[in-house]
Amino acid sequence: MATRLGELLVKQGLLTSEQCDTVLEQQRLAARPFGLLAEEMHGVAPKAVEDAWAQQFAEHAEWVDPLETKPGNDALSLIESRQAWQFGVIPIRLEDGELVIATTVDRLPRALRFAGWRVPIQCRFNLCNENQLSAALQAHYPMAGLNTQAMRALRIAFET
Fold first, then answer.
1. What is the phi/psi pair of residue 127, to 5°?
2. Residue 30's pLDDT is what?
3. Quick one: which of 127, 119, 136 has its CA closest to 80?
4. d(CA 71, CA 137)
5. If both were cysteines, with which of 50, 98, 139, 152 could 109 make a disulfide (CB 3.0 to 4.6 Å apart)?
6. CA 98, CA 75: separation in Å to the nearest integer?
């Protein structure tokens, strides 16, 4: 069974059990997202909610090695090299009208936002580890000077 968002926030010390219960009660009354209510009612930082949500998503997601797939040019053409590196995403394939994209757990919230405003078709996310993502980016979107260390620096720069 999946870990609930509230349980993750309690486990991380961002909410008490009592606060979690008050958010759940408000959610039953107002039918609003748990994370948004936790932010409004108890000052949980939006990034903490996103991180917990990404952790929750990782429990269900398919994990892939993006180098084991051979994305077609049709999939690769939907994301520019700069965007792939900046947002830490690698197209895997087009399937049933969706673009399947791999990213890491820590890049997932940002990757979702990017896909929502930039990719012209529905996207589905798979997860991979940092080294796999970096190697796939280097293989499919080579850019001078970009490697695993540069990718980590990009992530840190955009998180601050």
1. -115, 155
2. 92
3. 119
4. 12
5. 50
6. 10
